[in-house]
Request: fold
Amino acid sequence: MPNGKRKGLALHRFLYYATDNNADVLFNLNDLQNVTLRGDHIEGFQNSWNMVLSGLSKTPDLEILEYCYFQQVKGFRPLSEDIAHYNREEEGSNDRSYEYLFDSVNNHLQRTGQLKMWEALSKGLTGSPTSPSAPGPPKGKGKGRPRSSSAEAGKGLKACPFHKRGTCGDGKDCPMMHTGKPGGGGTKGGSAT
Reply:
């Protein structure tokens, strides 16, 4: 008989032959079975599992915990390599246990938590708009310079040498100041024509 069916049968026998002395455990075990992984919300599942498990008056056998826990996490894609490893292991191996599955989920949660913290830290250091400590990048189209009603607003302090010769090809988009009237002769490359 496959391992999963054997554990399911053990759970069924436990529930069927429960006596009044085990009624509290039976009720709590049902609560534990009702903790389900919905979508990819593994952190919520893990928190609920821990909460129900801590409320049990008697902890169920590890085989029952392993079976119930495995039924919930076996389809969680980010753990697919851990689950494949678990399935390849022999019965009784350290990596084919409730502890292995539980630790795999905790390791996943720790890694994703660290990744979120690094991303938040990176956003804070690069000055994303969500960070109150640093100004965000300029908004709008173009080369990142603000637009205003004045033609010279936002231009650099250096005068455009090509404008003086009448050869600036950038026009209003030139990052340098255009002062005075465009003069004659020359090209943007600096050679006269």
Summary: Helices lie at 3-16, 23-33, 42-54, 62-73, 80-88, 98-126, 161-165. Residues 3-126 form one domain.
